[in-house]
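Hi U.,

Before I forget, here's the chain from the pilot set. I'm dumping it here mostly so it's searchable later in email.
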Amino acid sequence: MKKKTNPKKTYQALVLFSGGLDSILAAKIMEKMGFKITAVIFQSCFLNSSQALKMAQKYKFRTIVKNFSKEQLAIVKTPRFGYGKNINPCLDCRILMFNKTKEISAGKKNLVIVSGEVLGQRPMSQNKNSFQLIEKKSGLKNKILRPLSGKLLPPTIYEKEGLVKRSALYAIIGKNRQGQFSLLKKYQISEYPTPGGGCLLTDPEFSHRLKKLLQKVPLCKVKDVLLLKRGRVFWNKENLIVVGRDEKDNKLLEKSYCKKNDIFMEPIEYPGPSLLIRNFGEKKLNKKQLEKIGKILRRYCSKANNKINKDKNLKIKLRQPTGVSQLIIKKTG
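Structure:
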């Protein structure tokens, strides 16, 4: 007698996948039900996708990576539903992610949209009212399955149609992760990253930098935001100044982040940090202004400030849109 095949093997689950324990569990629960898993991974100037990609590869999930930097920056500037503790518009971001996932699912049949969200885990975006709002604004009412808390939420269309059994869902609630930990062995999860640190918008230091940029340059672009992620950040009126902390920063500032109209400085005689100036003002910087900024570079050039060299002037290679020249920063003190 021919063995019957599981019809769910032809069904797919689009899982919003951060690579954290909750999203891994959500994917594994769906996989256990017989669904083929596609991890939808978002990356932007605020989100790093490396952790999610690593975990998806480990558990052999198919991946779709979506970069939505421009759209996310737009909602960070003017969030419809406000900010969290720092400058994180969590509700707006979740709506944007589900909208993007809905676009991926367009025209496809036999597909379930899945999230690893846990009821009560986050006060702003993971409560019943927020779940309803997210579904309404993304046009996915009753079409987002949250397996970890599914038994505590209204039945989704997938359950009503018999695609998903409610008995296969869980009733996990709150910030305590004991419910998730109890499922590790059952779903053969041997590795997962520690929670937190995924979104820069929740980081207090980065949020402070971004708030200042938005205040000074409301029309800032993604390439401007990227500078805030590197090195030491200063402002001199309308000039954003970034000083590299290490060799990696220096290379990125020069090769990846330096734009045509930026000014780039680096010491000539001593190893040390590089400095990038992005001028958001209308006027060009004069020699006096450049020398003032050059003193910031000297401050972090330890080799030039040691006992032997501290009384010497520091020669700086200055690269401007008009060409390459030298700048002399006189001894300190």
